[in-house]
């Protein structure tokens, strides 16, 4: 059989009214209609093949639809789907092709069998349309939907965490006020004010974390990289925030390599360092040791925060980066479980990575790697 569109009547003068109607439909259909033989090889195609696949009918006759599948699509499909596609196409199938003009397009094909007679050279009719726009629209909608679900999960978690975690500091403040009502010696006053200040700080930090997470979930976080001296930033965070909250912690800070400024967002990085060092102190003894080090490499900078505290159970190590997740072994240590989720997002914004090595009962090491 030659590779011509062999359904075309030889002599147009001999065309019947039906032939003319058929030709009108075939010439003008926007879907690509093909007739295939028992091997699924294309034996006829409408001119719309040029728009749909990027090839004229003559260029696709003798080929199979599967010849146009994009490499990505083949790689991503599991073997059984691929086999089904080749052997027993379903009534309707979606797939991605490499269009003749070099673009990737999503197509949807419906299959109608005339009968699987191997003797016949036309056994299958396919009708194919370009659904790229609707696939992209669906992707966008799914993304919006999952964002919406994330926000609604965030809200319901926020209420339960807020009502639970805010209760303890408020109770401590209340108790100290009661004590002050009864007794107002110099010593009692000093202790009570100290406790109240501590709890107010804690509440402020929790609220700051929650607000930061809300900004992230609603896409309001701004990312403004500038040249930053990391060692200076770490010293600043330790001196201004950590030492105040954990005065007895034994914090050391060293750096290796050639100190260089890196491009990063000052506010976001400040949060990352504050959270990691704060957690290292919080999940260790009061007088626990925390080692901070910065390693300046060829094309990245590692910020390493090591503690010798309670550690994180192995099976929970991947979950602690999810918002509101707190490991089983936290005991009475207060927190909301949002800090690390924010850390991960902020580091992602810098196209960096957060690594974790932890041994329950022995301690944890968090490493933030930022590209230079
Ligand atoms: P929070 O500290 O408010 O609980 P985070 O999001 O900062 O929330 O941390 C999530 C969880 O990860 C913590 O509740 C804790 O279980 C675990 N975690 C984080 N850092 C440490 C650490 N240095 N040592 C032990 N556990 C940690």
What is the residue-averaged pLDDT?
A: 88
Strand order of the largest sheet: 2-1-5-4-3
Number of domains: 3
The CATH architecture of the largest domain can be named as: 2-Layer Sandwich
CA gyration radius, whole angstroms = 33 Å
Helix content bin? 40-55%
CATH homologous superfamily descriptor of the largest domain:
Histidine kinase-like ATPase, C-terminal domain
Which descriptor suits the 3D outline?
Answer: elongated
* Structural classification: alpha+beta
Proportion of residues in extended strands: 15-25%
Order of helices and strands: HEEHHHHEEEHHHEHEEHEEHEE
Termini Cα gap = 63 Å
The CATH topology label of the largest domain is Heat Shock Protein 90
Q: Low-confidence parts, pLDDT < 50 over ≥5 residues? A: none
Say how many strands there are.
Answer: 12
CATH class of the largest domain: Alpha Beta
Please summarize the sheet with the most strands.
5 strands, antiparallel
What ligands are attached or bound here? adenosine-5'-diphosphate
Q: Helical segment tally?
A: 11
Question: Can you give me a brief rundown of this structure?
Answer:
The protein has helices at 17-28, 49-52, 57-60, 71-76, 79-87, 132-165, 167-182, 186-217, 230-245, 266-282, 339-349, and strands at residues 32-36, 42-45, 92-98, 104-113, 124-130, 226-228, 250-257, 262-264, 289-296, 300-307, 353-359, 363-371.
């Amino acid at each position: 059989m030659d590779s011509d569109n062999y359904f075309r009547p030889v002599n147009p003068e001999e065309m019947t009214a039906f032939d003319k109607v058929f030709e009108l439909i075939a010439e003008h259909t926007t879907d690509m209609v093909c007739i295939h033989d028992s091997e699924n090889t294309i034996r006829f195609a409408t001119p719309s093949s040029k728009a749909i696949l990027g090839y004229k009918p003559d260029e696709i006759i003798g080929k199979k639809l599967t010849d146009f599948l994009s490499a990505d699509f083949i790689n991503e499909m599991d073997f059984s789907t691929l086999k089904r596609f080749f052997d027993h196409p379903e009534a309707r199938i979606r797939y991605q092709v490499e269009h003749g003009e070099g673009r990737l397009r999503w197509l949807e094909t419906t299959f109608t069998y005339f009968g699987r007679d191997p003797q016949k050279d036309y056994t299958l009719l396919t009708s194919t349309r370009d659904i790229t726009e609707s696939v992209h629209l669906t992707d966008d909608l799914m993304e919006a939907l999952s964002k919406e679900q994330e926000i609604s999960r965030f809200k319901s978690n926020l209420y339960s965490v807020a009502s639970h975690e805010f209760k303890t500091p408020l109770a401590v403040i209340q108790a100290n006020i009661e004590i002050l009502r009864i007794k107002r010696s110099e010593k009692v006053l000093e202790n009570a004010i100290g406790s109240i200040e501590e709890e107010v700080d804690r509440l402020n930090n929790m609220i700051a974390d929650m607000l930061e997470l809300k900004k992230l979930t609603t896409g309001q976080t701004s990312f403004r990289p500038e040249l930053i001296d990391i060692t200076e930033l770490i010293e600043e965070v330790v001196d201004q925030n950590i030492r105040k909250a954990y005065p007895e912690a034994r914090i050391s800070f060293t750096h290796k390599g050639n100190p260089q400024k890196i491009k990063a967002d000052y506010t976001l990085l400040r949060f990352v360092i504050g959270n990691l060092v704060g957690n290292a102190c919080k999940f260790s003894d009061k007088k626990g040791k925390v080692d901070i080090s910065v390693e300046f490499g060829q094309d990245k900078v590692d910020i390493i925060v090591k503690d010798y505290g309670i550690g994180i159970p192995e099976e929970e190590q991947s979950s602690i980066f999810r918002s509101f997740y707190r490991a089983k072994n936290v005991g009475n240590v207060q927190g909301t479980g949002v800090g690390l989720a924010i850390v991960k997002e902020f580091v992602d914004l810098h196209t960096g990575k957060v690594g974790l090595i932890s041994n329950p009962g022995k301690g944890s090491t968090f490493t933030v790697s930022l590209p230079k």
